């Protein structure tokens, strides 16, 4: 099933462009990871995942009419070549929604995620783009449809439509319209996420290619959906009961289990650098000394720490470069 065929059924009969569509979406860190697709065209996952959004850190996107009839994409103030991978992905996504409208657009996106953090921006990027498209064409899509369509741009973008703790349900429909994210009605004021940068080099294998390789070549992957389902249940309990140890242990084991499946792929996929492993040992040492700190990692060498506000000072002395995010900031 093609994306455009799925989207068509949810659009108004006539699409009319407004003057401007602007939106912000937060980045997110998965505590139970999305790894593996059952449908690559629609980005339908093999397992459900659960994340926490990064509040004010994310992407802001503004769509206006193009001044000269050519689709233009500007990223962090720099115009992207029309045939670049980034510009094509953005324009192809918008084309899913503009129907027969011939009007060209200008899309400006700014990411305020510190580059030092080494965080991917496709989640917040496609979520902000989806929200901006909804405003620009006045589509008035329901939140679950915004999430399902953002997922077609990038799987993790389905979660970035919402703030706080968010679960992306895997769904089982062929058109994927039951595979969207849902915000959990729970917050956790003193939860902190620390971004530890250990390396900045561009990764050689992106998530999309990495998960495909894992699904196709790692026998170990067969156990991943079971691990993810069990972790999801534990995370719900941890969040419900504000049990930080359960949250941290589950998130760390989930991340390491995902990496185990990557390492068991062929050719092997190891996103860790020596500095990543050194940081893991440092965290385990700190934990052995009584500090409640856990880590999670995505398809890259950097670590994201989970801890509580009361331990911020100790974490800053252990990791002086630590970038601290307050996911449930009230201001
Ligand atoms: C996650 N990752 O749950 C997992 C953990 C990376 C490791 O979602 O192919 O950029 O666009 O659907 O969303 C990164 O994968 O992949 C990701 P596509 P995406 O956060």
Feature tags:
331 residues; alpha+beta; seven-stranded mixed beta sheet; four-stranded antiparallel beta sheet; 13 strands; 34% helix; binds ligand 2P0
The best one-word shape is globular
Encode the helix/strand succession as letters: HEEEEEEHEHHEEEHHHHEEHE
The radius of gyration is 20 Å
Which segments are poorly predicted (pLDDT under 50) over 5 or more consecutive residues?
Answer: none
Q: What is the overall pLDDT average?
A: 95
- Terminal residue distance: 43 Å
Task: Please work out how many helical segments DSSP would assign.
Answer: 9
Briefly, what is this?
This protein is an alpha+beta fold and about 325 residues long. Helix content is about 35%, strand content about 20%. Ligand 2P0 binds near residues 123, 154, 208 and 298.
Secondary-structure blueprint:
Blueprint: H1 3-8, E1 20-32, E2 37-39, E3 44-45, E4 49-65, E5 72-75, E6 78-79, H2 85-95, E7 105-111, H3 122-136, H4 143-153, E8 165-168, E9 181-183, E10 191-196, H5 207-217, H6 224-241, H7 244-263, H8 274-288, E11 294-297, E12 303-308, H9 312-318, E13 323-325
Parallel strand pairs: 5-7
Antiparallel strand pairs: 1-4, 2-3, 4-7, 4-8, 5-6, 8-9, 10-12, 10-13, 11-12
This protein binds ligand 2P0.
Ligand 2P0 binds at residues 30, 33-35, 43, 49, 120, 122-123, 154-156, 207-208, 298-299.
């Amino acid at each position: 099933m093609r994306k455009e065929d799925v989207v068509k059924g949810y659009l108004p009969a006539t699409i009319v462009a407004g003057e401007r569509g602007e939106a912000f979406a937060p980045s997110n860190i998965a505590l139970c990871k999305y790894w593996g697709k059952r449908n690559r065209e629609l980005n339908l996952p093999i397992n459900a995942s659960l994340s926490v959004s990064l509040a004010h850190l994310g992407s802001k996107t503004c769509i206006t009419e193009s001044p000269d009839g050519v689709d233009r994409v500007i990223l962090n103030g720099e115009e992207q070549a029309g045939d670049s991978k980034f510009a094509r992905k953005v324009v192809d996504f918008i084309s899913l929604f503009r129907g027969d409208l011939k009007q060209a657009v200008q899309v400006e996106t700014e990411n305020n995620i510190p580059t030092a953090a080494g965080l991917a921006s496709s989640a917040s990027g496609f979520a902000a783009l989806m929200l901006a498209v909804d405003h620009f064409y006045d589509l008035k899509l329901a939140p679950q449809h915004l999430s399902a369509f953002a997922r077609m741009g990038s799987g993790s973008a389905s979660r970035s439509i919402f703030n706080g703790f968010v679960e992306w349900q895997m769904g089982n429909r062929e058109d994927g319209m039951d595979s969207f994210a849902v915000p959990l009605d729970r917050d956790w004021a003193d939860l902190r996420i620390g971004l530890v940068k250990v390396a900045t080099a561009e990764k050689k294998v992106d998530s999309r290619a990495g998960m495909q390789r894992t699904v196709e070549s790692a026998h170990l992957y067969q156990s991943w959906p079971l691990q993810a389902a069990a972790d999801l249940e534990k995370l719900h309990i941890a969040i419900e009961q504000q049990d930080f140890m359960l949250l941290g242990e589950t998130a760390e084991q989930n991340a390491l289990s995902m990496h185990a499946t990557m390492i068991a792929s062929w050719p092997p996929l190891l996103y860790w650098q020596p500095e990543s492993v050194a940081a893991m040992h440092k965290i385990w040492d700190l934990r052995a000394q009584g500090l409640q700190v856990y880590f999670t990692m995505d398809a890259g060498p950097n670590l994201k720490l989970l801890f509580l506000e009361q331990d911020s000072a100790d974490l800053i002395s252990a990791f002086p470069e630590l970038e601290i995010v307050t996911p449930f900031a009230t201001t």
